[in-house]
Amino acid sequence: MANFDFKNLYLVNPFELNDECYARAMHAKDILDNSKIFTSFEDAIKKMDFLAATSSIESSNDKRHLRNAVELDDFSDKIFETEGKIGLVFGREDIGLLNEEISVCDMMIRIPTSESYLSLNLSHAVCVVLYSLYLRRVIVSKKRTIDKLEKEKLFNFFSQILDEINYPNHKRENTEVMFKRIMGRAIPSKWEYHTLMGVFSKTLDKVKKQK
Fold first, then answer.
1. Domain spans of the chain, in order of start
2. What long-range pairs does 61-67 form, CB within 8 A, spacing at least 24?
């Protein structure tokens, strides 16, 4: 983290930060000193505006949206257009992230690796992701993007549309995850957000009048 100018470390139920941890941290001990420790994943992400999960396990089926991943290069090219507090979510060394943890993230990213050995050690995965972001930090364009509250309003409008058209319950959860993933990959600007909200608002009004 210190190598690539990242400072905010959030840990969920970690092992004790003992002398060995500090010895390995070398000149980055302040990152450990200032780290925030949480007892649950939900508490750790409460103040985040955008969450990107990392996993070596992805779905090859477009209909299974939970683990549809964006390549790290594509993520790194676009993420600096996003405003607000961005969280990079890394899982456990042994089993990675659980499905319920991935489901609350806006996007899943994948580091391309050999089919013969997909998974990286946790520390290596963190290093590769932060390096990729560091390279792009000084060359990305700036644009105003939507925050957490605006995203929630957008998803709520989409959910209302599904209600009004009596969308099948057995397909609903997957469809809502699909929409969330599409918006996560797109990283819409403020202008794009207001345009979508205008379309959704008129759609809802028209559907309601036809009932």
1. 2-136, 148-210
2. 63/174, 64/174, 65/174, 65/177, 65/178, 65/181, 66/99, 66/102, 66/103, 66/108, 66/177, 67/102, 67/108
Provide the whole-model pTM: 0.64
Give, as one character, the DSSP assignment of residue 84: S
Q: In what order do the strands lie in the sheet with 86-89?
A: 69-71, 107-110, 50-54, 86-89
Token reading at 203: 């759609």
Alpha helices in the chain (DSSP H): 19-25, 29-33, 41-44, 72-78, 99-103, 122-136, 148-164, 169-186, 190-210
Q: Return the bridge partners of 11, or none.
A: 37
Instruction: Give the separation between CA 113 and CA 125, rounded to whole angstroms.
Output: 11
Q: How many CB atoms lie within 10 A of CB 99?
A: 10
Note the pLDDT tens digit of each residue in 20-58: 999 999 999 999 999 999 999 999 999 999 999 988 765
> What CA–CA distance (Å, rounded) separates 91 from 9?
13
What digits encode the pLDDT tens for the residues 107-147? 899 898 898 998 899 999 999 999 999 988 755 545 567 78
What is 2-136's CATH number?
3.40.1280.10
